[in-house]
Design goal:
The protein is elongated. Helix content is about 25%, strand content about 20%. It is of the alpha/beta class and about 200 residues long.
Length: about 200
């Protein structure tokens, strides 16, 4: 039986060392980090060695270690990131969850508290990227040809004449709004939230 998107998001599994290294290399000593879906805190503990403060959000209480075993600058919170109010001092967030369907929800909540960066593998489903959440985004219709990553979480490629396909076009990614997936992503996000409430909050 195939798992639903919601079931996938509730699962946790560790990543490999190159993935963790890519995240850690982006952390500065004055950062306040929010680790969304932190799992057993194997990465979060290492984040706490580099950052000023780290919040770890994990909805599965069984994965979280006792609070007394954590360093003083690491705060573990058992909560669902969809609904938990994000701390207002966060400067950078980490979302290692290739199967995440709600990148746009988390990105919007992070922007609302003034967070500048989101390090994630959720948009493309493989490599780690650092998204500047406050950077200006162009309309999808203004992309002539090339890869795009939308504020709704969708990614893709805008086709064009083969003669315009250069190396710079092949490697650049346009940050956009209003892509063809936006309406569908909004509906999926809303239906996922409603389903979650029906399944957990109103039993």
């Amino acid at each position: 039986m195939a798992l639903s998107a919601q079931a996938w998001e509730q699962m946790w599994a560790p990543y490999d060392e190159p993935t963790y290294t890519a995240v850690l290399d982006a952390i500065r000593p004055d950062d306040v980090v929010l680790d969304i879906g932190a799992g057993d805190l194997r990465l979060t503990r290492r984040l706490a060695q580099r950052a000023r403060r780290v919040y770890a959000l994990e909805m599965n209480a069984a994965l979280l270690p006792p609070a007394m075993t954590l360093p003083p600058n690491l705060h573990a919170i058992c909560a669902d990131a969809h609904f938990y109010p994000f701390p207002t001092d966060v400067t950078l967030a980490v979302l290692l969850m290739r199967h995440c369907q709600h990148v746009a929800v988390y990105a919007e909540k992070l922007r609302a508290v003034g967070c500048r960066y989101l390090i994630t593998n959720a948009r493309w489903g493989f490599d780690v990227e650092c998204i500047d959440l406050l950077a200006a985004r162009r309309p999808f219709t203004a992309v002539p040809i090339g890869w795009y990553a939308c504020s709704c979480g969708a990614t893709g490629f805008v086709p064009g004449p083969p003669e315009k396909l250069t190396l710079s076009v092949e490697t650049a990614v346009y940050e956009v709004t209003g892509c063809p997936h936006c309406d569908r992503q909004a509906v999926n996000c809303k239906s996922g939230m409603v389903q979650y409430c029906q399944n957990t909050l109103y039993k």
